[in-house]
Amino acid sequence: MGVILPALSLAIVHIAGDNAAVVPAMASLIGNGIYATVFLAYMIFGSVLAGMSAWIGVKSGRELTAVVKRLFGLRGKQILAFSVLAVSLPASALTGGYFAGQLIESLTGIPYMFAAALCIAGCSMLAAGYGRELLQISNYLALLFIPATGIMLAMLLDTIQVIPLNNIIALDQISWPLVLALIGYNACGMRSALVVEAGTYFVTRDYTGVYLAILAKIFEGCFTLFLAHLALVGGASGLMALPTVADKVLGPWLATGFNGILLCIFINTMVPAMLVNAKQLSVLTRLTLWPALTLSGALIWGGSFICLDLMLMLMSGTGLIMMVFICYTAYSLHKQGANKSQ
Predict the structure, then answer these.
(1) In a 3-state reduction of DSSP, which class is residue 53?
(2) What pTM value is reported for the model?
(3) Exposure pattern of 81-107 as b/e (b: 16+ CB <10 Å)?
(4) Which domain holds residue 265?
(5) Domain CATH code at residue 285
(6) Total domain count for the chain?
(7) pLDDT confidence tier of residue 263, bands split at 50, 70 and 90
(8) Cα–Cα nearest to 211, from 58, 77, 24
(9) Rounded to 5 degrees, what are φ and ψ at 198?
């Protein structure tokens, strides 16, 4: 229980736009192939990456930025900033622009162009420290997402069809570009830094932090599979998969409430993302917080007009960059430790 409960907590913290929006949307497009795709992205590659990130924290006892600066100097810190932004900016454009913008448009009728800008600007204000009470309320409301999706699946039990196991694990149905894009989400600077920091708290307990990170990623993968399954059995069509299922199952009034909860998930994801983006832009440009937030907001808003397929392809490449950097950091840390022991 000493590892399971923290792992569940870390998994809940990791629920973001990829779990609640990208995977359900792609489930409605690629069908049963989403099961093996999610399994590979989260439970195999994601677990390895999370374990490696936690190992860096356990081994060094420091957070990721301090580790990179100690190993590679100022240039390493700049490379880390670029690698984080290469993943975090496209992910933010998808979560806070593309999906949140469409959700706000459906809830309020505000045109997408202004809805996306409103979400990004609001999250920037929250990231700068304004409206802390509003963010706390959003955090509490977001906790309703898990029971709400559970109720939706329970209401669909009579319509669920048994899917043959060979259809679920068939390799020919895997969407490899989506696997790489989800690896990019898993390698995102916010998550990697959080996992490394979690590992530092277990530095005196051998490799408990590594086991915690791996278990948390497995829990996250299971919940993501659950959301993909909900999108499939709910007969969702289009890119706003979960809101479509909610409208079919719960009716328009309760579906509006569910969409509000889903928007809270996006806000809770975007606020730390905007702070991460601004800090990494500050490393590269030496801008102060507000100019960096403004610049990152403008980049995210512009990226929200790029089509989903192109954005996912971009993230598949940038995610690999971040993954390689984390692997190289772990290798350098291990090599340094081996040299000191000689």
Answers:
(1) helix
(2) 0.86
(3) bbbbbbbbbbbbbbbbbbbbbbbbbbe
(4) 4-341
(5) 1.20.1740.10
(6) 1
(7) very high
(8) 58
(9) -60, -35
